[in-house]
Amino acid sequence: MLDLLLPPDCPVCHQPVERAGLLCADCFRSMRFIADPCCAQCGQSFAASAPGGGGRVCAPCLEVPPPWRHGRAALVYDERSRALVLRLKYADRTDLAPLLARHMARAGRDMLENADLLVPVPLHRGRLFHRRYNQAGLLAAAIGRIVRLPVLPDALVRLRGTPPLARLGARARQDVLREAIAARPSRRDGLAGRRIVLVDDVMTTGATLGACARAATAAGAASVDVLVAARAPDPGRAVVEGWRLSVG
């Protein structure tokens, strides 16, 4: 009855679709899904493939390894995927979380099969008050339902508010986030010895996810992987055009 009153439409272009939560055929085809070959640590899509196995790591990650083990993203962060992410994040389109979560679960299938716990990147309480929900928490909850993994939504906490990071480079973001995120004291036992997958909407430089990974590791997590809806090119580093095999 609801579909009759409010016919479901594509969340990107608003063309009619069979049921709510689906992309139309044209928008689905235009989405740039990330699949192998991609960096095993940050999920950055490679421009060209070459022989190799799971040890593929991009040059920036070889130069400065991230503080987590593996990383995957479902989509390239471009005009199409940005429309989905920003509507989820700022326009109360919480119905988009399950749609993105399905693609995230596909992209992160291998790491999710070996995980114990999903942990969303936290919002500061001031920002959470105004937004009323944490989009990373919605994504983590939806992924947890798909793959039947527990979610600890308040495992990490932002100790202080931080300014918007969009216009900052990698070094500036790291400086802003230094000691800004920690494990919640009452949740440290829930993190200790667990294989954690951190969940967020977008990875750009990885500074926020890095701060979260360090906090989870400090709380005793056995391992930390990251899974995001979309991966943006790092504005502080050159675009990756190839890959190398990690050593060891």
UniProtKB/TrEMBL annotation:
It holds the Pfam family Pribosyltran. InterPro entries: ComF/GntX_DNA_util-trans (IPR051910), DZR_2 (IPR044005), PRTase-like (IPR029057), PRTase_dom (IPR000836). Signal peptide: none annotated. SUPFAM superfamilies: PRTase-like (SSF53271). Residues 174-234 form the Phosphoribosyltransferase domain. Gene3D superfamilies: 3.40.50.2020. Coiled coil: none annotated. Residues 1-62 form the Double zinc ribbon domain. Belongs to the ComF/GntX family. This is ComF family protein. It comes from Gluconacetobacter sacchari.
